[in-house]
Amino acid sequence: MKLKLTILLFFSSLFFLSGCTASGPVFTQIESPKPGMSKVYLLRRSAFAGKAYCPSLKYNNTPIGCLKDNGYLVVDARPGEAYIGGGDFRLLFEAEAGKTYFFEYGYEPLPGYSSYTAFVEEVDSTYAMRILPTLNLSL
Question: Using CA atoms, how far apart are residues 4 and 11, in angstroms rounded to an integer?
């Protein structure tokens, strides 16, 4: 009986966690910004910490989606001061027309490793292009 319960819990956990992973199309190429706009990519590599959490993100108060584990989102940003935020973070930046920006969302352990905190940081295009082909669009 204990073995059956353990197996049931294991497969239930897999089912639960699999719903938190991005399942859209795999990234293929960088999209050019629309005229007079900038392009923003938000990346989230797969990690155990926070896997079941999917932050609902907004760009300047407009919902843009939920950034799932192992996923990415793309946003067309107007030039000027902009913010992307949701859940446990808010990122402010100055968007320039014609530019493409890459930001990574993730978790890092707090001292003692008993809990984690979310972070968002700008990453360069070389790093982003190594990571993006391993990600799916977060739908």
Answer: 11
pLDDT tens digit sequence for 71-84: 999 999 999 999 88
Q: What is the DSSP letter of 21?
A: B
* pTM: predicted TM-score of the whole model, two decimal places: 0.77
DSSP 87: T
CATH number for the domain harbouring residue 105: 2.60.40
Structural domain boundaries, residue 38 = 2-137
SS3 59: strand
**E strand map for 13-99:** 38-44, 56-59, 62-66, 71-77, 80-86, 89-95
CB 40 within 8 A of CB 103: yes
The total domain count for the chain is 1
